[in-house]
Amino acid sequence: MPGGGPAASGDGPVEAERPPLDLRLAVPAVAVWGGAALAGRWGPSAAVLIAAAVVGGIAPLVGGALLVAERGRSGAGRRAWLAVAVAAVAGLAAGVFVAGAGGQDGRSGMLAQLAAARATVGVELVVTDDPRPIGGGLAGPAGGPGNVAVPARLVELATSQRAAGTRVAASSAAPARATAGATANTAANAAGAAIGTASGGLVARLDVPVLVLAPGDGWSGLLPSTRVAVDARLEPPRPGDQVGAVLFVRGPPRPVAGPVWYQRAAGRLRADLRAAAGVLPQPARGLFPGLVDGDVSGLDPGLRADFRAAGLTHLTAVSGGNVVILTGALLAALRRTRIGVRSRALWAAATIVGFVVIARPSASVLRAGAMGLLAAVATGTGRRASVLPALSATVAVLVLAYPRLALSAGFALSVLATAGIVIVAPGWRDRLARRLPPRLHWLADGAAVAAAAQLACTPVIAWIGGGVSLVAIPANVAAAVAVAPVTVLGVVALAVGPVSGGLARLAAWLAGWPCRWLVLVARTAADVPGATVRWPGGPLGALAALAALPAALATLRRPRGRRVCAAAAAGLLLARCVLVGRLAGWPPPGWLLVACDVGQGDALVLAAGPGAGVLIDAGPDPGALTACLDDLGIRRLPVVLLTHLHADHVDGLSSVLGHLPVGEVLVGPLHEPADRWAALRAEAEAAGVPLVEVGAGASRAVGPVTVQVIGPVRPLRGTDSDPNNNSLVAVARAGGLTILLAGDAEHAEQRQLLTAGAVAAAAPRIDVLKVAHHGSASQEAGLLGASGARTALISVGAGNQYGHPAPVTLAALTAAGIPYARTDTDGATAVVAAPAGVPALVARRQHRDA
To answer: How far is CA 394 from the centre of its chain?
Structure first.
């Protein structure tokens, strides 16, 4: 590895003297990156942009003059540091100016004002990446199942009917006023935007990245570079998001221009690869294209969660490893021919460019492709490629060309992992190789690379709330053996697919075996108890991780520290695997439903397959919900049903959205309280999870679980609590049991359900009753003692101010001979199917006391 010394040979570790790291380009690259990140996050004013331009222009001149003045003096080190300082200042100014000027359209121009007004406009878009499925339907404009998120560039916007396809006027008078008011500011704020008028509205030509949320019909097959027109409702993005607006779309797009020829070719190749993968069973079928070209559209959600827990997600984010394997195999083949060095370099460069197009230019792909091209240039010109300067130059050029990358977590992870491998891994590899027999030196390479990359990425992983994986290093070492065969066979399948589908299927079938190994590694690692340690997210979490790393490294550098850490890790793992499992016994085998202990609120989980659950309400406490789902081994939630929007049923959802794969969130037609509805919409949109409005008659099936909404039969208004009396009441079936989930329904809704016969029709026999409204006194006999339920659950918080559960409610259950459990005294409670299909309640606190 350049700059890192030679690897240990097969005869024994050889540690050559490594040259010092070349940091001359690293400092200005970091400065450019930092300046662009600051500008992208906080949006500099026009005065700051002018100052940055002036500083960026003057800094090289001042630096040059100072260097000339220093030429006659002794001290090369002083001149070197002066040059570095000047480069850092110029780089910082350049990053601020480029990112700040480029983001004006999205932050303060006409688009930003229309998005703030949530106007409905006509737009023309150029698709920039493949549409990504995001589960079920969207509340509001983008209704219907099978929705997709489409990254795009907004190139034309109008509020009249005569521009950009079929236009519509602003959705209300307020947006119209915002549009008219925007004209005065657009010339100054919307850099590069061309604005005109058309029949009472505005037409603007922009170039702003946006995210489109739309139904799958007509959108899911679009290729990058396709230009379409559509009517959309604008929403503002979250602070720090790298898009100017979020667009909600109802119907299919109207084609304006098809994709360019090379995107059509790339789309055909990707489709052929997916077809070839059809010979494999799931989950290998969905994994194979992801490992080769980053196409994860068919990746099993459970396997996706396993890869995340095992620290293997980077394998499906095409990056440097794929480029190295691909170009290495190509150059190895070309060396057997008479093609010269320059021709081989040209072949390698062309292959890298083609691979970037096929794999889509995501952050990690761009970084890997740019570095690969620099290496190809160095090879063709006969120069020695140095990895760290190449990485630094790549970062500076890409951030200046695509300023949004400065705030991309994927870009940061890719760059930091590469830097860790270049800077840290060689020394670790040599030290580890000295302690291993010669035939195991390959293990030193794999362990050092995995550990160095994990170490470098830990602060960013903590920042984005990914926790700290304790199994990532061994999982990556175990997975490494399968990555190269899958990549090579995948490229073969890509190349021969247009010519021979049979040969492509054969290559895919052969690649299926290493894919199965990766599935086994991911699932085994994810199933290790305590595989991921929860860690605080955000800036504080990143700073905590950054502070913990030096302490951990200092401890591990000492033999005694290593022994203590190894003994502690082994002891904790033993306790987690053996003792805790025997003492707690939670969850009980064969559990079908668990009422989580979340305090005064509701959060119930239906077992829907390995690692999957259906969540009914989310409780008031994000931490309590996270702990419950972790204890149950839930790694994905295909369906979340919120009975109503009171805080004790929805506030815990923030621990799920953006942290676990969620298919859809079902809500009722009453969007009250309004502040909770607004917060829920913002969280769901930020996580890319669709909100689906449902009512009586709606149903969902997830694995062995079905959930059918039976109430309210009609919306109820003017009751003691409209949100409670419009709770979504549902009947669930799991493991042969029928479960009535009554939400917070009070007298009014309960009477409506009983009068309409909705309960009797959907659940002639009730095995488990989730008592309504935390066991309050507002109960109808037909949904309590006279319900005929075999068991009952009461989700309630200890010492609550409402007096729940009411003594009269408990007395009615006792008089009817219905055994019940309550989470305030029994803790989390599971429902299991006893012999003969009789439900049994298993309370966690009873287990702990046993």
So the answer is: 25
Buried b (16+ CB within 10 A) or exposed e, 531-568: bbeebebeeebbeebeeeeeeeeeeeeeeeeeeeeeee
Give the C-alpha distances (Å, rounded to integers) separating 585 from 7, 385, 590, 725, 833. 48, 57, 12, 38, 17
CA terminus-to-terminus distance, the chain:
58
Q: List the beta strands (DSSP E) in 612-736.
A: 612-616, 636-641, 662-667, 691-693, 699-702, 705-711, 729-734
| Cis before 587 (ω within 30) | yes
> Which H/E stretch holds residue 22?
none
- Identify which of 490, 494, 445, 450 has the alpha carbon closest to the alpha carbon of residue 469: 450
Report the distance separating Cα 684 and Cα 674, nearest Å.
Answer: 15
Cis geometry, peptide bond prior to residue 6 (ω within 30 degrees of 0) = no
Question: Residues near 670 by Cβ (< 8 Å), separated by ≥ 6?
Answer: 644, 645, 715, 722, 723, 726
Angle between helices 46-70 and 76-102 (to 10 degrees): 160
Helix (H) or strand (E) segment spanning residue 407? none
Pull the structure tokens for residue 187. Answer: 């010339």
Under a CB-based contact definition with an 8 Å cutoff, are residues 253 and 230 in contact? yes
> How far lies 209's CA from each of 36, 103, 262, 390, in Å?
16, 10, 22, 28
- Write b or e for each residue in 209-234: b if 16 or more Cβ atoms lie within 10 A of its Cβ, otherwise e: bbbbbbbbebbbebbbbbbbbbbbbb
Q: What is the DSSP string of 128-151?
A: -S--EE--S--STTS-SSSEEEEE
Q: Give the separation between CA 151 and CA 142, rounded to whole angstroms.
A: 16
Residue type, 152: A
Check whether the bond before 673 is cis (ω within 30° of 0): yes
Give mean pLDDT in consecutive 10-residue pieces for the chain, a chain of 850 residues. 37 51 81 87 80 81 68 60 78 85 65 82 91 53 56 84 37 34 35 46 80 84 92 79 82 90 90 91 89 83 78 80 81 82 85 86 80 78 73 88 84 84 83 80 78 82 72 86 90 90 93 93 81 71 79 73 69 57 68 94 94 94 88 91 95 87 93 89 86 92 93 90 93 93 93 90 90 92 83 92 90 90 92 81 62
Retrieve residue 709's tokens: 């909404």
**Residue 102: enclosing H or E segment and its boundaries?**
helix 76-102
Phi then psi for residue 739, to 5 deg, are: -120, 125
pTM of the model: 0.64
Residue with tokens 């400092």: 27
Question: How far is CA 594 from its chain centroid?
Answer: 27
**Token code pair at residue 421:** 């491998």
Contact 246, 134 (CB under 8 A): no
Kindly report the number of other CB atoms within 10 A of residue 252's CB atom: 14
From CA 295, how far away is CA 150, in angstroms rounded? 14
Tokens 């679980």 sit at which residue? 705
Write out the E strands in 128-283: 132-133, 147-158, 194-198, 201-215, 227-235, 246-249, 254-257
